[in-house]
Amino acid sequence: MFTGLYEMDWTDRVRDLMRRREMTQLKLAEKSGYSAPGLNRLLNGKRGPSHESLSAIASALGTTVEYLMHGIDRPESSAQVSMVPMLADEQINKWQLAPDSIKEAVSQWIACPSSKAGMRTFAYRVSTDDMHAPAGSMSIAPGAIVYIDPDTNLDRGVTGLFLVNGQAVVREAHQIAGEWFMTPTNGKYQAIQMTGNAIFVGQVVGILQLP
């Protein structure tokens, strides 16, 4: 049996970075959007980390999720990773119209590694199973995080996010006889025709399927 060898895990790297940056755990909690008890549970292994929590902590420490999890520091790749806001339904329209006006109100920012991300790209957690069909060309399970770029156009066959009476829904866009429809992948739902109460927000440029 080998002795004297120690393999760091992600919590060790967090504590090491905190020490090097002279950052207290309370300050890290504030910068990452966590409560002090919530961060303490994560760092003590009482709660497993999600990609969102790792992204928030990595951002607060000025590093990447890849470094926290594997100790790999690649500046050339981390430079391509941007942080985007995780928006709720009621924040999406405000973000489209004036992003700066609600930045302070956004409680969570997460990493977006998609090279297709634009300046106004944001993240949204899918809550419905409209697009969940294992046999479909694109399946998005409830709980998945989608990255939406508002600076994209409505086009046939694209998967996008729509606001219907203020409620967000992710579906495919199709045009039939000159009319636009929001089509689900899940066969138990019907297509919804786009009328005055439906707004196309932007295309899905990335998907994070969470276990």
TrEMBL record:
PANTHER family (UniProt xref): FELS-1 PROPHAGE TRANSCRIPTIONAL REGULATOR, PTHR40661
Top-rank taxon: Bacteria
Species this chain originates from: Kistimonas scapharcae
Gene3D superfamilies: lambda repressor-like DNA-binding domains, Umud Fragment, subunit A
InterPro entries named among the record's database cross-references: Cro/C1-type_HTH, Lambda_DNA-bd_dom_sf, LexA/Signal_pep-like_sf, Peptidase_S24_S26A/B/C
Keyword line: DNA-binding, Transcription, Transcription regulation
Record-linked SUPFAM superfamilies: lambda repressor-like DNA-binding domains (SSF47413), LexA/Signal peptidase (SSF51306)
UniProt cross-references to Pfam families, sorted A to Z: HTH_3, Peptidase_S24
Identification of the protein by name: HTH cro/C1-type domain-containing protein
Residues of the HTH cro/C1-type domain: 14-68
